[in-house]
Design a protein that fits this description.
The protein contains two helices and ten strands. By secondary structure, it is mainly β. The longest helix is centred in the N-terminal third of the chain and has 9 residues, at 46-54. The radius of gyration is 17 Å and the shape is globular.
């Protein structure tokens, strides 16, 4: 299942409100429809942001929880550094009632072209997208159907990108939710997280959900 919503840009180092707006100025957000024309400028849509944040039918992974399983033991320790192609076993929680253990393998961190972002207008000028492709496997065998996972891009110097993107680029980086069959051990699916930078290249993907990983994320590098 693919969520084709809007993409919001927050050109700030810190964000709040599920990453839909920037802390310093709400006018820094821009949005566009799923398949914008390359020349169509985007306009800010705060009403859509409020709706997305308040919609109880669209739960999101809760970064303030430990994901339903303790770090350590059979899970990958916080702060672990992996190479693209290697697997991490991670505790995971989605919404209020779905929790379990997943295995994540980052298969590629691909650099896109600035032209890919042209449909989002002037706000995206100078922004280079990166596509974090991954395979997600249900390790614990609990019901995680329709859950979604997002990894974040990190810059080559180890810092954050300063940009928060909600959504995907259809045909370039499709953000997939877990299928209805993602309820048994060994079930898997593939998805993509969209990240972008206006400065230093993105060189790593990070998992930072849950208290144990928020300050010490698991990293994948090329």
């Amino acid at each position: 299942m693919t969520h084709k919503g809007r993409i919001f840009f927050a050109a700030a180092l810190a964000t709040m409100g599920l990453g839909l707006t920037a802390c310093n100025d709400g006018d820094d957000s821009a949005s566009a429809q799923d398949s914008p024309s390359a020349s169509a400028p985007a306009s800010a849509d705060p009403a859509a942001s409020d709706s997305a944040a308040a919609d109880p039918s669209s739960p999101s992974a809760d970064p303030g929880d430990d994901g339903g399983a303790p770090a350590g033991g059979d899970t990958t320790a916080p702060g672990t550094k992996l190479k693209v192609g290697e697997k991490a076993v991670l505790p995971f929680k989605y919404g209020t009632d779905k929790k379990g253990t997943i295995a994540v393998t980052v298969t590629a961190i691909e650099k896109g072209a600035e032209a890919d972002m042209a449909g989002f207008g002037a706000k995206a000028k100078g922004m280079t997208p990166y596509y974090i492709r991954m395979k997600v496997e249900n390790v614990g065998g609990t019901d995680l159907s329709y859950a979604s996972l997002r990894l974040r891009g990190e810059l080559a110097d180890g810092g954050p990108t300063g940009i928060v993107l909600i959504g995907d680029l259809p045909g370039k980086c499709d953000s997939e939710s877990a299928p209805s069959e993602f309820t048994t051990k060994g079930a898997s699916y593939e998805t993509c997280s969209l990240s972008a930078t206006k400065t230093t290249p993105i060189a790593a993907a990070s998992f930072d959900e849950g208290d144990a990983y928020s300050d010490s994320p698991v990293l994948w590098t090329s």
